[in-house]
Specification:
Elements (H helix, E strand, L loop, with lengths): L7 H15 L6 H14 L4 H12 L6 H11 L16 E6 L17 E6 L2 H7 L7 H12 L7 E9 L6 E2 L1 H9 L10 E8 L2 E6 L5 H17 L3 E6 L3 E3 L9 H11 L9 H17 L4 E5 L8 H14 L2 E6 L12 H6 L5 E4 L3 H12 L1
Parallel strand pairs: 1-2, 6-7, 6-9, 9-10, 10-11
Antiparallel strand pairs: 3-5, 4-5, 7-8
């Protein structure tokens, strides 16, 4: 089978990961996606290449290797690898170097280990690719520091305020021209011009805090806080069974205190979902009165809605007419085989300008680039 063949490679990778989970191994969605990308490169025709692609991306603990080998032999041989099932696998010793200077942890060289590869890895890089739903409390704290470095700088918009021009054409600036002439004895030796100024667009973040978003909301609320505390002209709202404005609660630089105040202000955290009604409240009270006009509106939600799809479609249409751009961030989009079949997501999608993932730090970095485009 040729490298990168679809959909057989993706279907096989997803099924193999499901078998590993059935045997008790922890295989997150992010690792499965990396395995799919690895199979795109090596193909399914080389048994050893597939073995090491899966072992490098799906196995995180040495004690899981035995289970992985057993599942590999039982599952992957049905795809017609060349060679016998009992072909020995070359053993390679991996000496992981995390950047510290502790050389005493390297394995002794007893001559029977085969090739020794020294691999340098970055904990931050691993964390960027990890699914938010699998984060520990310590990883959330580390992710908060990485989120603070993200800058959501939206595309600028024209301002009524004019600024000095560096070019020799434009609208004449009579005041500055006269002042310059007074310094040269009344002779207008140099004419000064002005250009149209620019100012950043308002950014509006609507975070779904319903029960279906709970695995991701605890990380995404930190991202929303970093955006509010890191720049001006950012508004934040929580969407559940109702709409709650949380800009003031998140405006302080103390992340823990800000998130605690926001969770107190949101009465329906981890409750039901009525996205269409929440968007209608936003449009009526805030959006069409000016907050969303010409702004970049980012909706962070999995699209599950208990309301009527017609309400969602109507309110998204209203929002798209006044906003400069509507970006929808869905953490489930990264799941293999995902399709926007939820009734709320399907109703909203025709009015969305950008539909992006939101399950990891890496996907939020992509979001920052989309907002800045």
């Amino acid at each position: 089978m040729a490298a990168g063949t679809e959909p057989a490679g993706t279907a096989a990778a997803v099924a193999f990961a499901r078998f590993l989970r059935a045997e008790g191994l922890d295989v997150p969605i992010g690792a499965t996606l990396t395995f799919v990308q690895a199979l795109d490169l090596v193909g399914l025709g080389d048994r050893d290449a597939v073995y090491w692609a899966g072992r490098a991306t799906l196995v995180t603990r040495p004690e899981a290797i035995e289970v992985y080998d057993a599942v590999f032999r039982a599952f992957w041989l049905r795809y017609g690898f060349e060679g016998r099932d009992d072909t020995p696998v070359d053993h390679i010793t991996l000496a992981l170097d995390d950047g510290t200077d502790d050389s005493g942890d390297l394995p002794p060289d007893d001559g029977d280990q085969g090739d020794v590869l020294t691999v340098r890895y970055s904990a931050a890089e691993l964390l960027k690719r990890k699914d938010f739903s699998l984060y520990t409390t310590a990883e959330l704290a580390q992710a908060r520091r990485l989120m603070a470095a993200l800058r959501l700088t939206g595309s600028p918009r024209r301002s009524r305020r004019r600024v000095p021009s560096k070019r020799s054409h434009g609208r004449p600036d009579l005041r500055r021209t006269v002042r310059a002439a007074l310094r040269s004895g009344g002779e207008p030796a140099r004419r000064v011009f002005t250009d149209v100024g620019e100012r950043p667009r308002r950014l509006v973040l609507l975070l779904d805090v319903s029960g279906s978003m709970e695995p991701y909301a605890r990380a995404l609320i930190r991202f929303v806080h970093a955006a509010v505390a890191g720049r001006t002209k950012v508004e934040a709202f929580a969407l559940g069974t109702r709409l709650t404005r949380i800009t003031r609660e998140l405006s302080t630089h103390d992340a823990d205190a800000a998130i605690a105040r926001a969770s107190t202000a949101v009465a329906d955290w981890s409750g039901g979902t009525r996205l269409g009604d929440g968007l209608r409240q936003f449009n009526d009270e805030w959006g069409q009165r000016g907050m969303a006009r010409g702004a970049i509106v980012v909706v962070l939600s999995d699209g599950w809605d208990r309301g009527e799809p017609a309400v969602m479609a109507e309110q998204m249409a209203r929002l798209s007419r006044v906003a400069f751009r509507v970006v929808w961030v869905n953490p489930l989009k990264a799941s293999p085989g995902y399709a926007p079949l939820a009734q709320g997501m399907a109703a909203a999608l025709p009015y969305v300008d950008e539909f992006v993932e939101g399950h990891s730090l890496e996907s939020l970095e992509t979001l920052a680039k989309v907002v800045a485009a």
